[in-house]
Amino acid sequence: xxxxxxxxxxxxxxxxxxxxxxxxxxxxxxxxxxxxxxxxxxxxxxxxxxxxxxxxxxxxxxxxxxxxxxxxxxxxxxxxxxxxxxxxxxxxxxxxxxxxxxxxxxxxxxxxxxxxxxxxxxxxxxxxxxxxxxxxxxxxxxxxxxxxxxxxxxxxxxxxxxx
Length: 163
Hints:
The protein is mainly alpha-helical and 163 residues long. The protein has one domain (4-161). Helix content is 84%, strand content 0%. It contains 4 helices and no strands. Helix 1 packs parallel to helix 4 (140-161), helix 2 (57-105) runs antiparallel to helix 3 and helix 2 (57-105) runs antiparallel to helix 4. The longest helix is centred in the middle third of the chain and has 49 residues, at 57-105. The radius of gyration is 23 Å and the shape is rod-shaped.
């Protein structure tokens, strides 16, 4: 059986880990949204026929590869986001249970409130970071991945059409 000092160390470690996961989720979701918007722009350029302005075949061929490459990156980032979120969910659930149990046991209210405030803020930040902007929910990463795959195929197909 662990003593209180070991439990406190575990709690601090879990909070720092969850805070780190939250930061990584924010960064990955921002990159994912930027890649998706870039893929949208490239696809719209291809669909508008803008590639007809370029007479060089190599340039048109490279434009047809851009959406595919960025689509692959988007799928990789979507998988990474989902993996980080699953790890964070495990810490989130355990920390929530631990803090709720401690709150019921604590007798010194000011000490409990000071200590748990930072923990609650970290948990709330994770909760906010665990969904992708513009596509919230459990299936956000999958939705973004599918959207990028569609953009990739449309962009490549349309730019190759002018090849």
